[in-house]
Amino acid sequence: MIRENEGISSDVIRGYNDTMILCILRREPSYGYEISKQIRSLSNEKYIIKETTLYSAFSRMEKNGFIESFEADKGLEGNGKKRTYYRITPAGENYYNEKCEEWKLTKEVVDSFV
């Protein structure tokens, strides 16, 4: 199991935390803990994003207009307290597509040396 900054260079993965989060939000709105679990699961437990990294990304992406937050009841999951959910915006969709294209080029270049 690789935790953030263990085995994967923090410089490399940091540039793609937003992409991973946006990928998940493209499917449906979600909240921090669930997004963290999905990142862990989709990476086959090779990457576990730190809570501080996740919420810093939320803050930055919301400020840049890539996501928006809203409050919703936990409903059947808990005691009805409000939970902050996030959803992707059209600007976030564009940013996600740009990052995917950037990754293809990055991977092509690095594959030339590895």
Q: What's the SSE pattern?
A: HHEHHEEH
Mean pLDDT over the residues: 88
Query: Percent of residues in helical segments?
Result: 40-55%
Report the CATH architecture.
Answer: Orthogonal Bundle
Report the CATH topology name: Arc Repressor Mutant, subunit A
Q: Specify the number of helices.
A: 5
Strand numbers in spatial order across the main sheet = 1-3-2
Share in β-strands:
5-15%
SS class: alpha+beta
For the record, what CATH class applies?
Mainly Alpha
Shape category: globular
Question: How would you characterize the largest beta sheet?
Answer: 3 strands, antiparallel
| Number of domain modules | 1
The Rg value, from CA coordinates, equals: 15 Å
Number of extended strands: 3
Q: CATH superfamily, called what? A: Winged helix-like DNA-binding domain superfamily/Winged helix DNA-binding domain
The span between the termini is 22 Å
Task: Walk me through what this model shows.
The protein has five helices and three strands; from the N terminus they run ααβααββα. It is an alpha+beta fold and 114 residues long. A hairpin with an 8-residue loop joins strand 2 (67-73) and strand 3. The protein has a three-stranded antiparallel sheet with strand order 1-3-2. The mean pLDDT is 88. It has one domain (10-111): Arc Repressor Mutant, subunit A. 54% of the residues lie in helices and 14% in strands. Helix 2 (17-27) crosses helix 5.
Q: How is the topology of this model organized?
A:
Blueprint: H1 10-14, H2 17-27, E1 30-31, H3 32-42, H4 51-63, E2 67-73, E3 82-88, H5 90-111
